[in-house]
Design goal:
The structure is a homotetramer of 472-residue chains.
Chain A: H1 5-9, H2 13-19, H3 21-41, H4 48-57, H5 63-73, H6 76-88, H7 99-135, E1 140-145, E2 148-154, H8 155-179, E3 181-182, H9 193-198, H10 203-217, E4 221-222, H11 233-262, E5 265-266, H12 286-308, H13 321-348, E6 350-351, H14 353-367, H15 369-378, H16 383-403, H17 411-416, H18 425-435, H19 442-459, H20 461-464
Parallel strand pairs in A: 3-4
Antiparallel strand pairs in A: 1-2, 5-6
Helix pairs in contact in A: 2-7, 3-4, 3-7, 3-10, 4-6, 5-6, 7-8, 7-13, 7-19, 8-11, 8-19, 11-12, 11-13, 12-13, 15-16
EC number (chains A, B, C, D): 4.3.2.2
Organism (chains A, B, C, D): Luteolibacter algae
Domain Adenylosuccinate lyase C-terminal (chains A, B, C, D): 364-450
């Protein structure tokens, strides 16, 4: 058999359990039994004996037998009805139900539980990012824009920056969970006609039946007006938030790949690990690259989800079926696998303080050009004038450094000799001297991030304590 | 000049104003002035004369002159700085700012205002869908699944079904608006270093400055840890909700195109309108088709937004720039154009009660097969057994109808003659008789939808009253 | 274990074999052996005994053992090297190779073979479309534009129309196959440095080695300048053509779903099949809907492929790895599954001539309005004038029909009474009379399509004879 | 008016001319005139006077007047017919035509001409890449995989690597151009019924008419079986190749952004250019970033194109219309703008040989580990054993370098002291000494690339000589 590569190699057991074929069949049978019990309690003629017979066999899952039945009926739910009936010796399930009364609700339950697992991973991730941000709060780092040296920041702040993106995504995830509405027991075209037939038109009983079923599912929100299916834009909403949640980690990992290129940091290297089958010296950002790969995968499933939304014909059909069989589990597997990988990176990553300090020293005069400009401005020089003068000298310095015309960054000398800036050599040296501590609001920003994350850790202590499994 | 086709042909003036080049330049200048005033109030040496000079020229927008400057600097913001300085005769704007301190905030303001316009259109749309759902609450309609006759519903319920999808999207839109955080005044790499330089390291003053600027923008949420840019997953979130909002209308329009094919409804036809330049008799669902086209367009911009998310290198760069110049306005134009079109459809659409009734009459025996099955089940027949018997006769009836072997749907006769169902001809005739009123919970569902929408109409009366412009 | 749902439920054995884990490991081992043999023949010190030892164990595939090794090395290829060495007792494979010297070529072999399987299915599909087009060449059908009646065509022509789209895609597939270049043996960064080291700098020997390996693979084209990886835009090209090939079938299936809604045709219904678990009478276009679902899936994999293209950093890395593990097999499974489904539809579909004829009769006066206009034009009436007059009457007729004001389509009467058209009642009746045979060039177009397809059937007789497996 | 930002800021005049509203209207009018002339020659009663009257006014394009008409008809083609008739005083255009007989062919002409412009840019780009590859053929460079030092290559080879990707895309572009088929004059549903009416059923005349019109367009291939529209998978094919063509340049630009981060190369800096409005020293890869942005944009249009393919209902409708109005021109603008930007980068980029040499010196012992391994293997050491030994020492060396435990890369010493490798210090020094010239097949690979490109330059000398306009 060809395995699902995402589930087999990357995602965790807690996520895989939600989506396994066997697990799903048991979920369905529990659902049918819940419906039967409620129908019986509300007056339908279903014997306790029948219910007991179904309960007895509900865990006897024989996927091959069901598939054999499906090859005849060409209808997957019909095959599963017949199998469950066959096992129990009764025909009492699925009364007044259409297939989608079963499958929509069960699949929504899978989605909902998947979201809860993801929330756990998000909180665990935020905790680690907070810890790393605090740990490296004092390491002054050359911030880069356009991938070249810009101004000083701290390594802690850089981590908090990507962390806050994930924190923002967490809020959206909470909104999606809170607003996640289940389709409920609406019948073939959404009018509940068959349940009403069964209960002789008693709308109150049908409402009560649906309430009980929704309670069985454990999801608080519920659609009122649907057809055979719930709107597929809800799937789009789910896959959108999954993609959004991958974005902060993905940006962090791209940055860590860049830092590895400058040797300022790395994702770490486990004992026994091999970087390259050819080049023994290689220690590669392969886990970070994998995180970026997961992001690309999620964007593909986002395209699938978008392809289903807005494409409902009348009260619905199964043109979404094969897509959702692939997209829903696989999107959850991909994001779960991403978090497992990313948590491992956060646990194992290294920062190389010596290399970081050397980098900052090399670029320091450049990192401080805005401060020079601000000081000139405070002395009354026009902002754009100061900009022009500094640019002139900075560009020349860079050119000389690259050709080897100068060995050391002598921008300060050049600025000191240019009267247009109104700054003395002493003043410039002062600016430079304080430069490797000039990280502005970085520390207070990290503190803010820590505070926000700690609130979540208190709210979800178990999630915060989660540790990833061993990754491949 | 080549116009933006979405803005020119489809979107409304209120949306176009937000994104016009001239309007944006004025927004930027107002922003710069707000910064100068706050900086002055907090102690920076900026003269009232300078501020007055800037204010005087702020509406003198000469796009061509700015473009000429940009061709030299190859830097759009630098060009706009120079232009505004040139007009005013001062060099006092943009102190301590990086370009993104300006552009991120101004673009976020455009996005935010765009979201507010969209909210207005959503509410206006919901009102019309409510009205249509109420208006046609009594029209019994053949609900279709897999595009073929299934069970009865009402036309009102069908509209409420797509309406509730939009209503659900409305909640997400409100969440996005409420959580929409502006980047603020964070400096070149996010540490506020230059503002701190300007204010001699006084963090409280810098915080106060930022508070004033954010207040000027009118957006309540704010990022704390950012680099040069705010996280692009926020753009993804925005374009996702835009795409989600288009989904209910898109599904409705696909369904209306299907109904036009059966002549049960149409999008209407304006006086003077031409359906086809070749075929004079044609009255086409061209506006519905256009709505579906807008959905495809939005999915393309969603792919662009997804392409930017998770791709931040270090503290940021402009690899997102050209994408956002296209994607952000065009996604808003597309959705705004979609709502203008869709509102027009809702205003002009027709339902053909006679055709609808004829369709229901033709399919009635089929529409009631589940009821027949439920009645048999209540008489003790096994559910799957009943299903099998009815299927046998229904399939044979369809075949005979299509070949012409029978003229009229005689399924009832066949069922009456089959003892396995335990239903007499009289009982079956009873079922059929009540069939064209058997719409289950459809009415109460529509009532629920109406109630929810009315709450919004009360909350946003002006929006609810909005009427679309004339569409092409 | 969680299975790959596409492989398990939809794609055929011939496609699954290409992508199975075990099959791939054997492909890799054969590749290593081919390299060793060539290296030995060109002078490297590799003993026949070693090669024999590897050959003896090459089919001993123990996936679990390899996974256990990978959990240590965190490097999949290193794990497979160690496993194969362990089995054979030698260390002679992978000399001078980097992992990608192995995996790129083997994966390209999988892709290439996948394309050949797809070509077979395309030819088989075209044959069936040709047969159906010929079979129904005489059935006059109401062509629809905007989903409403337009002009007459034939059912055969409608099929040929979608068939010609697939035929056009076939040409692109042939181009892709012919231009598909394999990466070859290029070493860690593409310079072949290690092979050159092994062969003491003898470039001719290294070229010969590569030639032999490429010959072993059976692919004629080869890259010259690559890094560690071949350009990922080649994957994009492959997934693009897969998506394109799904498009004609997808449009056909949407149209068949529409026709089922009007009962003019259906995808058929197998003995024992169940349409709906709720509604016994349903015979649904579930296979057509599935084909449309596969198209949505492919568009998701296309987004993944596009996400990898243009994203190569330097000489390459593995950020593409997890994506390609999912996207490449799954895109092939999806398209293969689509063709299996679509071939089944083509075999089982039905057309209902009586219903088709009744539809044409109902719309006939409308279908002929362009002919009326042409005849008026030939009599000297201005084209736009004639258009206006006919539109006026046609729109009124439609309105009267829908309200029940008239029972029968009396457009002809209205036109006959309007002098502006310069056509007598007799002339109009003549036009109408020939209307149900007025299918223009439809027959000659079908003939053209048949001829083109027959050429392919002669070229690929085995493929043309292919029949689908039993679908779920 | 809101301009199309892609056309206004990025694409060239030759591309903009193809897609301008005015230009398109003239194309349409020329097309109508060509049809009239052919119809007249084949016997239709159209006077020379009428044709002359149309020809006289064909360049009088009043977009506003047409828009005013469209606001009444809600049909764009009908509005343009009425306008042209109004200007000429005749009603002889569009006889026997449906709108799509006009617009499909004219839009395909635009696409086709767009492809020819792109081909020109591709050839111009390949020429420059060839020149750069040759120019820097001798610069030994540290090739990077996973963004860290791997083995030596040359800068020329790196450029040729991305160049060969574009060259491969060029072949696909040629295939697409050669196979690009125009819809032709097929009438409202593809059966040519109205032309056959006009010509009294004379099929030969209708064929001849179509031949003349296709000849007028200058496109050699032609569809035979179509409905109202040509298959939209052809648009997908076009946008796919546009996206593919952007991929090599996009990867090159990502790599140049990475090189700028290590100061080994840069995209250059024009006189007067400003890198940052805040930081005067910045010289950013803003044009490279823009190229990457264009790639993201194209992937969005690819999603739109994919959204249209496979979605044809019956003989077609206009659900694709608004999408194609946006996607087709904008995809061409984006790719054209990308080439303009990329050509500028190729013209202005710099390589810093001193920095490159210093980098190679620093990493040299690592770059040669595979050679060490190969030499050990040749001395009989097991491949995996040698790998293990070298990895051990290399990992330790890296760690010591990063912590500062050692100052200089002393891997060679460590290897020399380890007996397991069977290599003397002298032998190791030999390997290292030749290391900075060990670029394997790099030079012959570049030569191969040059040769292939020169063939194209000879074939298309004018295109090869094309120089980009001044970019913003």
């Amino acid at each position: 058999m060809i395995p699902n590569v995402l589930a087999e190699r990357y995602s965790s057991a807690s996520m895989n359990d939600i989506w396994s074929a066997e697990g799903r069949i048991v979920l369905e049978r529990e659902y049918w039994i819940a419906v039967m019990k409620a129908q019986r309690d509300l007056g339908l003629d279903i014997s306790d004996e029948a219910i007991a017979a179904y309960e007895k066999v509900k865990n006897q899952v024989d996927v091959a037998s069901i598939m054999a039945r499906e090859r005849v009926t060409r209808h997957d739910v019909k095959a599963r009805i017949e199998e469950f009936n066959g096992l129990s010796g009764f025909e009492d399930i699925h009364k007044g139900l259409t297939s989608r009364d079963l499958t929509e609700n069960v699949e929504q339950l899978q989605v909902f539980r998947g979201l809860l697992v993801i929330r756990e991973k998000v909180v665990a991730t935020l905790r680690r990012m907070r810890e790393r941000a605090e740990q490296w709060d004092d390491i002054v780092l050359t911030a880069r824009t356009h991938n070249v040296a810009a101004q000083p920041t701290t390594l802690g702040k850089r981590i908090a920056m990507f962390g806050e993106e994930l924190l923002s995504g967490y809020q959206v995830l909470e909104d999606v969970i809170a607003g996640y509405a289940v389709r409920g027991l609406k019948g073939a075209v959404g009018t509940q006609m068959d349940q009403l037939s069964l209960f002789e038109g008693d709308a109150e009983k049908v409402s009560e039946l649906e309430r009980r079923i929704v309670k069985h599912l454990g999801i608080s929100q519920q659609w009122s007006n649907v057809g055979q299916v719930y709107p597929r834009s809800l799937d789009l909403r789910v896959v959108s938030v999954l993609t959004e949640l991958a974005s902060g980690p993905s940006s962090f990992c791209k940055t860590l790949r860049l830092m590895a290129g400058n040797e300022t940091a790395s994702e770490g290297f486990a004992p026994g690990q091999t970087g390259s089958s050819a080049m023994p010296h290689k220690m590669n950002s392969r886990s970070c690259e994998r995180v970026n790969g997961f992001h690309v995968i999620l964007k593909g499933y986002l395209a699938m989800a978008a392809g289903l939304a807005g494409d409902q014909w009348n009260e619905g059909d199964v043109s979404c079926s094969v897509v959702r069989r692939v997209m829903l589990p696989d999107a959850f597997f991909a994001l779960d696998g991403m978090f497992e990988t990313y948590l491992t990176i956060l646990d194992q990553m290294d920062a190389y303080e010596g290399v970081i300090a050397a980098e900052t020293a090399r670029y320091l005069p450049f990192l401080m050009t805005t401060t020079v400009m601000m000081e000139a401005v405070k002395r009354g020089v026009g902002r754009e004038t100061a900009h022009k003068v500094i640019k002139e000298h900075a560009v020349a310095t860079v050119a000389d450094l690259r050709t080897g015309a100068v060995e050391k960054n002598n921008l300060l000398d050049r600025l000191a000799e240019d009267g247009r800036l109104a700054l003395t050599r002493n003043e410039l040296e002062e600016i430079l001297k304080r430069g490797d501590r000039e990280v502005g609001s970085a520390k207070s920003q990290v503190k803010f991030f820590s505070g926000e994350v700690k609130k979540l850790e208190e709210k979800w202590p178990e999630a915060a304590a989660y540790g990833p499994g061993v990754i491949l």
